[in-house]
Amino acid sequence: MNQLDKIVALCKRRGFVYQSAEIYGGLNGVYDFGPLGTLLKKNIREAWTQSIFTTQQPILFLEGSLLGAHAMWEASGHTQNFSDPLVDCTNCKRRFRADDIDLEKVCSVCGKKAWTDVRQFQLMFQTQVGAATDSSSIAYLRPETAQSIFVQFKNVMSTNRVKIPFGIAQTGKAFRNEITPKQFLFRMREFEQMEMEWFCKPDQVDEFFPLWVKARENFYTHLGIIKDKIMLREHGKGELSHYSARTTDIEYEFPFGWKELEGIADRGNFDLTQHSKHSGKDLAVYDDETKQSYIPHVVECSVGVDRLFLTLLCDAYTEDTIGGEERTVLKFSPKIAPIKAAFLPLIKKLSEPMSKIYKDIAAKGYMVEFDESGSVGKRYRRQDEIGTPLCFTYDFESVEDNCVTVRNRDTTKQERISIEKIEEYIQASLSQ
Ligand code: ATP
């Protein structure tokens, strides 16, 4: 098994991620998140939200709709440009993204060379809104969260009395009918984005663009991601999206190679200009200093929750041997670990006092677990596999000395601490 297959298996075994509609054969490129996956996603969103407040200027949040009007996606350029090149193998009927394969070579599935012409495939999911089925009822599931930010920009600005520069941020689902969803959570058809659009004066872009690139890079090292596995890559001219004047990707070295984790793009005033033109509404702002109106420019930071989820899993996944026994451990930073600590009575007879300690800590708002079943060794293995940084064990001596044993996930070293110090110990681990 390669590393990605092992991660997929662990995710299912421990309740991080399940294939959507699995009992019906699954829906390709669509996943459900189990209890631990849900916690991890929540921690990722929270860490991102905190990280986005890096400047003194305001950042406001928006929750846009998932369904978007045809006119909006027409204005944004998505109905015309949001497509990938598609090619079919006429022999085995498999579909490929033309830029993923070498059309000079044979099909990797059937070994024949029988390609159709390359054609553009629209990635947006189209639907009908209301009972009418004419073209006026066409709507799309959003392929990115950004457009609702542009469309609501004026409303947000005027109802919150903010001045340029400022940001509007959003986390939420996006949908793309990817030709070949693959590599688990890397390329999905339904996924979640975390995007921040930074509105500034045209001549401020050169100042803010590098600031945001740096801030976003810091976010990943702050999450504990191995520095050598992160790199910045500037897009070449031919690679830029239709809206972008400049893009820097933050790439991660996945088990399947270096790939985009986050994109930071200078979108210029493309989006606001397009929406002004198409809607007939003036989206310019007035500059008190120059006494002139202008259309703000935008620096965008965009990352997928699920892609970051996969990054964190790949980065944390470790196999090692402790005392002659092999184990799998997720070395998550305590900040994003789904469970912060586990409370384990040595044997079931000791469950009552340990469960009381556990409840006290849980009541203080820590995401912790109590586990009394099976041998302690087995329980440690489970906590290692789900990335719990600390395990507290209550044994026969605890009754006498009011202490527990605390075991460190990464070193497996154990020390004895007073029960009173448990919360402090967890706090110290979270602020690492
Ligand atoms: P790619 O080149 O990988 O298709 P993109 O350049 O089209 O990505 P963007 O439109 O810049 O991606 O999307 C911003 C972020 O959203 C990406 O950096 C990625 O983290 C996430 N993302 C995009 N598409 C997907 C997807 N199909 N599944 C999971 N995450 C995605």
Query: Can you say what the CATH homologous superfamily of the largest domain is?
Result: Bira Bifunctional Protein, Domain 2
What is the percentage of strand-forming residues?
25-35%
Tally of alpha and pi helices: 13
Given helix and strand content, the structural type is: alpha+beta
Q: Roughly how many Å apart are the termini?
A: 33 Å
* Principal-axis shape: globular
Q: Give me the count of strands.
A: 24
Reported for the largest beta sheet, the result is:
7 strands, mixed
Trace the largest sheet across and list its strands.
3-10-11-17-14-13-12
Which stretches of 5+ consecutive residues score pLDDT under 50? none
CATH architecture of the largest domain: 2-Layer Sandwich
Radius of gyration over C-alpha positions, nearest whole angstrom: 25 Å
The unique ligands bound to this protein are:
adenosine-5'-triphosphate
Mean pLDDT: 95
Question: Helical residue percent?
Answer: 25-40%
Which CATH C-level class of the largest domain is it? Alpha Beta
The structural domain count equals 2
- At the third CATH level, what is the topology name of the largest domain? BirA Bifunctional Protein, domain 2
